[in-house]
Amino acid sequence: xxxxxxxxxxxxxxxxxxxxxxxxxxxxxxxxxxxxxxxxxxxxxxxxxxxxxxxxxxxxxxxxxxxxxxxxxxxxxxxxxxxxxxxxxxxxxxxxxxxxxxxxxxxxxxxxxxxxxxxxxxxxxxxxxxxxxxxxxxxxxxxxxxxxxxxxxxxxxxxxxxxxxxxxxxxxxxxxxxxxxxxxxxxxxxxxxxxxxxxxxxxxxxxxxxxxxxxxx
Length: 217
Ligand code: SF4
What we know:
binds iron/sulfur cluster, 217 residues, alpha/beta, 24% helix, 24% strand, TIM Barrel
């Protein structure tokens, strides 16, 4: 990778769909590459496709949308070392910056002003063995932890992890989401209510607003 640039899959303006910021207009910077292969992945096109863009140009493209919220995502955005320069520039421009990460990449270098949305991979993803548990130490009350569930076994796993690590007391929100087409949202809602779980039910908003396979939304 050239100094001062990143391999970018896409930059787009859309509605934030998967956090407590869901519903807010947001500019997304999707970086190329991921070292996981989750069984339900819906962004496989980000594994290899992309073009190298200087960080200054990425920032200009983001700012051109006149939006105060930016999200750096992937793939896994923390695999490219220059991502920290991009994040610093976006923060320096006064934006609220979210980073969506798989939980398998080290969070220790992220600026504490960043809102981290960290997945903890459930067994149904096929990648639970990649969770970096030491990342929990870097979470702050502004951050969010997300579980994408493929069924009841994943739900019970997530519930145990939540309680074992007192997650709901450590972060802004624990998000429980259905792997699209695998788990009925109604079932998840019922389980959460039965258990009085201190977590937040979440739908992948963009899949309902746009068609499930639309890119760049
Ligand atoms: S971490 Fe995200 S981008 Fe990577 S394989 Fe899993 S779902 Fe896909």
